[in-house]
Amino acid sequence: MRKILAFSASNSPTSINHQLILNVTERISAHPVTVLKLKEDDFPIYSIVKEKEGFPENVEVLYKMLQEHGALIISVNEYNANVGGFFKNILDWLSRLDRKFLENKKILLMSTSPGKRGGASALEYCKNQFPRFGGEIVESFSLPQFYENFDSEKGSIVNEVFDLGIAEVVTAFSQEIKE
């Protein structure tokens, strides 16, 4: 049984990706899950000058949490056909602390957006980047048109096809991370 760390890559207080994280983590019972809210931390903008001053404490805390968990569920947001700057900044800090900060991590990678592509560009960016940091993406899922396909009050996917799809992805991910 692997411990799972789950978080949204968004810093929005009303993050739709965080809502998707909550929906997915409620489906997992075979593994202990910790849901993290990255948006509650202030990560300074990375620069070589800042790095020479030392790594921020919250970067080191996040790094330690990543190391304590064998699996990750990450839902990435998208701005202008790319991953959001908040999360890209976190990736920059972590990769400077340890280039292989995702080593031996099995990842369920997700995205959602109000648009028809469901954050597909941000999802693809992370699919290309995470293996460079040592992570293994074992499953992925994109939920398009969030507001049409998700009931925020109930925290549920209302489109039956997408609900079945995420159920299959979660089941496959849970099986893949058995030790």
UniProtKB/TrEMBL annotation:
**InterPro entries to which the protein is assigned, alphabetical:** Flavoprotein-like_sf, FMN_Rdtase-like_dom, NAD(P)H-dep_reductase
What is an example of a GO molecular function annotated in this UniProt entry? Answer: FMN binding
Checking Gene3D superfamilies in the record gives:
3.40.50.360
Which SUPFAM superfamilies does the protein's record reference? Flavoproteins (SSF52218)
Any GO CC annotation of this UniProt entry: cytosol
> Which residue ranges does the record assign to the NADPH-dependent FMN reductase-like domain?
3-140
Q: Name one Pfam family in it.
A: FMN_red
* Alphabetized PANTHER family for the sequence: CHROMATE REDUCTASE, NAD(P)H-DEPENDENT FMN REDUCTASE LOT6
Specify the protein name.
NAD(P)H-dependent FMN reductase
Species this chain originates from: Salinimicrobium sediminis
